[in-house]
Amino acid sequence: MKEVTAKQIQRLDDAAINGFGIPSVVLMENAGRAVFREITKRAGLNRVCVVCGAGNNAGDGFVVARHLLDAGIATDVIMPGPADRLKADALLNYHLFRRLRGRVRTVKRVTPRTAALISAADLAVDAIFGVGLNRKVEGVFAELIEAVNRHAPRVTAVDVPSGLDATTGKIYGVCVKAHKTVTFTYPKKGFTRGQGPAHTGTVKVADIGIPRMIKHRVIT
């Protein structure tokens, strides 16, 4: 399958949302459901810890968390900072998760309690950063990535392992080492370049509902 750059996938998403008219929240729902379906193929999944950031990748993570909780799987969400920092679609999915009485732990730094939540899960879902990352990862975000790498028994990354440049495979200081990456629409060039192969694990490409005519027009 054709590999794309971060800019190409961003242009494709923009064409689907602003050109074709698919609501961005619909694509987010499709993305999160695709990750949910992929991770629940694994037997013996009793507890999951979803680690979210503050952007659209976090919104995907909240969709995953909602479907896990609704399926009867114990699910914790860890998030740096308060919910009011979330973007609109991500905030909506945060509230939907909370309406199911989902638990969200906001952290300013990683504590032993944070690490215990990650290590107690059968699987950690990395929903911290997506394809738009272009700066060094610092502060609590770096701490969370390091905690996931150190304490999670298994890790599934949402779209891109957090800390990886989706185009070049460069690492922005620290990066999630995923066992599996569920990426959307197309695999990213950074998965096979630089340090990408050491961090993506098995790559699964998920269709999130962007019509083929748009893909053919934008991805050349």
Describe this structure as you would to a colleague.
There is one protein chain. With 220 residues, this protein is of the alpha/beta class. It has a single domain (6-218), classed as YjeF N-terminal domain (Rossmann fold, 3-Layer(aba) Sandwich), CATH 3.40.50. It contains eight helices and seven strands, in the order H-H-E-H-E-H-E-H-E-H-E-E-H-E-H. It has a seven-stranded parallel β-sheet, sandwiched between helices. Strand 1, helix 3 (56-70) and strand 2 (74-80) form a beta-alpha-beta unit. The mean pLDDT is 96.
Write a brief caption for the model.
The chain is α/β, with parallel strands linked by helices and 220 residues long.
Termini Cα gap:
13 Å
Low-confidence stretches: none
Strand segment count: 7
* Strand percentage: 15-25%
Number of H/I helices: 8
CATH class placement: Alpha Beta
Estimate nothing, just give the exact number of structural domains. 1
**Residue share in helices?**
40-55%
Order of helices and strands: HHEHEHEHEHEEHEH
CATH architecture, please?
Answer: 3-Layer(aba) Sandwich
Q: Strands of the biggest beta sheet: in what spatial order?
A: 3-2-1-4-5-6-7
Q: What is the name of the CATH topology? A: Rossmann fold
Fourth-tier CATH superfamily name: YjeF N-terminal domain
Rg calc? 16 Å
Characterize the overall form.
globular
The mean pLDDT is: 96
Give the class from helix and strand content and strand pairing.
alpha/beta
What is the makeup of the main sheet?
A: 7 strands, parallel
